Fold this protein.
Amino acid sequence: MLMDKDILPKIVSLCKRRGFVFPSCEIYGGLSAVWDYGPMGAVLKKNIKDVWWKTYVEQRDDIAGLDASIIMSEPVFKASGHLDSFTDALIDCKSCKKRFKIEHLEKKAKADHCPECHAPINPKDIQPRKFNLMIKTHLGVLEEEAKPAYLRPETAQGIFTNFSNVLNTLHKKLPFGIAQIGKAFRNEVTTKSFIFRTREFEQMEIEYFVPPDKAEENYRYWVDERRRWYVENLGINEKNMKIREHSRDELAHYAKACSDIEFNFPFGWQELEGIANRGDFDLSCHGKTSKQDLTYFDEKTKSRFMPFVIEPSAGVDRTFLALLCDAYREEEVKGKTRVVLGLNKNIAPYKIAIFPLLKNRPELVEKAKSLFNDLKKDFVCIYDDTGAIGKLYRRQDEIGTPFCLTVDVETREDKKVTVRERDTMQQDRVPIEEIKKYFRDKFSN
Ligand code: GAP
């Protein structure tokens, strides 16, 4: 991975050019810190989520899936502490009129100067205003009767409010977890670095409920397990990841302990995922506010207690960006620069691209289309005949397609096609009747 600062603009440009990510509402000038995922991006994002879901919901019997609502009522966030504590303290600069977080004044600039325009700030004016990050709306037809509601700032709260429902339907014994993938919304103040910090994003969260005396060991287990997942299931280079444990004064209002999995982004080491020991904070608060009993009865020990929660909380968009940064490379090939997204072949948006060598030869086009129609039943494929072969290869290299298959003038005679591998650019001549087995073998190891 190239790690110079210039790589981010290159990735942003590739994302636009090749249909991964577009600015939201672009034809109207865009919407700040909100992005749309194009044809390649939508598939890549789905692949990330599918791998996560498969690993934790389908392949384990101690975690169940959930799809809770995005809009949630006010008491949920009163109980969770988000109404009172999910705030950034803001300061306005009287000179440049920019608004920034108080910690930026402390960390990035001289404590009495604006971090943007460097104008002196009168100490009298350093009276931060609290700004809640949640996005509020109203439900109801008549304004005077409308009830406030919020777009959830984390998927976690839908899991806590459904804790009893899931327990009562599945009769699970502790430890067990509830997993959810979904959108979350935050009216972020600082929104930089492309899709790293956005106002609408997606999370993949597990709330893993454990007896209090098992919290520490499960917390350690999840830190290791989540790091393993990025390396083994997504193919991210482990050298680009590290664990950072939070100090006491950094912990969120609900956390007893927290570790971040950090990734070496082009703009520095930053949080990719947080794994927190949330104690019994959430279930206790929701139990108290809703007046529902959210305790757990352990049949074995005949004891009743409030479970503790270990929460591995990952961002889909941040994982997407980490994958692109990890996979992006430039190579010199015959005096020209080849841009390659060296994505893990199971994560790449398309697995096989199929071309006729010459688009003005109907018999080649027909054979390529018929192979496409057959292979797409088993693999995610793309057919393309809109350029010369060199251009088609480069296009697929840039979107990370592991294999290109070309039907050429010899195909009719020898009943073989050329398969070209993305990373090595090595070409194999493969009999058509063996082509499915050939790809099945390639994707299984
Ligand atoms: N339930 C715990 C929680 O939400 P968080 O550290 O605020 O904890 C977890 O968020 C993950 O969600 C982060 O590690 C990041 O990957 C992602 N995330 C949070 N805020 C984000 C934002 N504004 N834009 C993109 N991803 C975000």
Remarks:
- Residues 416 and 434 are 9 Å apart (CA to CA).
- The mean pLDDT is 92.
- The chain has two domains: 7-76+144-324, 350-444.
- The two ends are 23 Å apart (CA to CA).
